[in-house]
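Appendix C reproduces, verbatim, an entry submitted by the partner laboratory led by Prof. M.T., so that reviewers can inspect both the input and the predicted structure.
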Amino acid sequence: MKKNPNIAVVGATGLVGSTFIKVLEDRDFPYDNLYLFASAKSAGKVLTVKGKEYTVEELTAESFDRDIDIALFSAGGGTSETFAPIAASKGVVVVDNSSQWRMHDEVPLVVPEVNPEAAFKHNGIIANPNCSTIQAMVAMKPLHDKYGIKRVVYSTYQAVSGSGVKGVRDLEEGLKGNDIMTAYPHPIAGNCIPQIDVFLDNGYTKEEMKMVNETHKILEDDSIRVTVTTVRVPVLNSHSEAINLEFDKEFGDIQEIKDDLANFPGIILQDDPANSVYPLAREAAGKDEVFVGRVRRDFSVDSGVNLWVVADNIRKGAATNAIQIAELLISRA
């Protein structure tokens, strides 16, 4: 891998794809050449990146017949299923944001603050975890390393931007009094919908089982007991999560847990309940960090804590995480 690789963005005109571009600019990611790909419908659009104009090309099997080192994919599972192997076969390292490759044994599932070494065990494809999993993993990693997590209960409150432009439109129109349902089975304005993705035979949704399976894979521990309820809420951006953890080992004062969190890379601790200071979705929007607060002992178990975890689902939950993976790859060039 080169220090200044040639980068491709697949799905460049979508919500996450356009955020890939913004994060590349914000983090001043070093590259020699940049290629932007999208569907035939978006081909021909001109986007400006770091002051230079680029024309969006239609994604085809021949798109990777050039010197591309890293391709950032966010164009849906079907596109990734078809084109990621083609890119990988031509020496491109694909960082894929869809769910297509996450649970494949030969594809690493990477959160750079949590399991960075996994990024170097790829066979051409690296998977970005689910947005709700990413922020949870960052918050849980320092505590798992020190105390060992034996059980986790996730309750998520997920923003409409996680459903793309349709979800955003449903909320915006609903707030105007126009209840449209292009992304959800019910109006989202004024509602909390306890269904994200389809229901499975076990009564959980596909989104909920993603969090179960991805937690096990990223932490490399299938013994952790995980249960999840995911809820779509009428918030534009940033996912919020109430996370309850039960540990194998005892911890001392709750300040010990707060210090563990505050000292971990990628976490900003906001925990001053007396002054109503805790993470908020509006304040996390547009930022790359994971915000943690409402840290308190769970008195119903021998060794447990409750956390409130908030992060921008489009940035840290998708684009930034992918670009951090790319930064990892070039760090050893």
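The chain has two domains: 7-129+318-331, 132-313. Additional entries are available on request from the coordinating office.
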